[in-house]
Amino acid sequence: MTRPLHRLAAMALASAALAGSLSACAPLVLGGAAVGGLVAVDRRTSGAQLEDEGIELRSASRLRDAMGERSHVNVTSYNRQVLLTGEVPSDRDKQAAEQIVSKVENVRTVVNDLAVAANSSLAQRSSDTLTTGKVRASLVDDKLLQASAFKVVTERGTVYLMGLVTQREADRATELTRGVSGVQRVVRVFELISEDDMRRIAPTQPRTDAPRQAQ
């Protein structure tokens, strides 16, 4: 698939997600989704990908049972590292959510960035979905990055970047994301790997021997 088509795919996914968010009122959201032929090469092993899907499903179920409709919690798992975003009514709920997820099978670590606040509005969630699409598109457009190495989550204008990436890739993705309209803050939740590891698990990386000017 060419880069223009990749970019269209990213924006199409954002539009589809936005349409879904406008028609659904579920208070608890899973972080990952695979859409047919649009699924790109992933640096995680197939086993890790399945574990992440299971972690998200089990976490969602347990949080829903414990908190019901009073909280809006997004659960995103990448390589068994779980990111919690959204809103809960109290500090006690925030800590309870972390404890619940930390006990889910295969969870390695939990990054708890839940806000103690009222649930975000539908308009805010729609704006976040569009921001995620724009960030993904900017990563696809960049010739120095492999966009499929990154997972992007947006909550109240804050963009969380996840993935198995090198320091170079992390810095480049952060720079690009900060330049996207609608992004208020960038939080890096990367798992850093060496350049040698990157070449081993992702042999089709773009060339990096000749630096290029940022567009």
Short description:
By secondary structure, the chain is an alpha/beta fold.
* CATH A-level architecture of the largest domain: 2-Layer Sandwich
Distance between the termini: 22 Å
Please tell me how large the radius of gyration is: 17 Å
**CATH topology annotation of the largest domain:** Histidine-containing Protein, Chain: A
Biggest pleated-sheet summary:
5 strands, mixed
Globally, the shape reads globular
**Count of all domains:** 2
Number of discrete helical segments: 6
**How many beta-strand elements?**
8
Helix content: 40-55%
| Average residue pLDDT | 85
The level 1 CATH classification of the largest domain is: Alpha Beta
Task: Provide the structure class.
Answer: alpha/beta
- Low-pLDDT regions: 15-26, 32-39, 205-215
3D structure, described in words:
This protein has helices at residues 3-23, 46-67, 91-102, 122-141, 167-178, 195-201; strands spanning 28-30, 72-78, 81-88, 109-112, 115-116, 150-155, 158-165, 185-192. 44% of the residues lie in helices and 21% in strands. β3 (81-88), α3 (91-102) and β4 form a beta-alpha-beta unit. α1 packs antiparallel against α4 and α2 runs antiparallel to α3 (91-102). It starts with a helix and ends in a 14-residue tail after the last helix. The chain folds into two domains: 26-116, Histidine-containing Protein, Chain: A, CATH 3.30.1340.30; 122-201, Histidine-containing Protein, Chain: A (2-Layer Sandwich), CATH 3.30.1340. The protein is an alpha/beta fold.
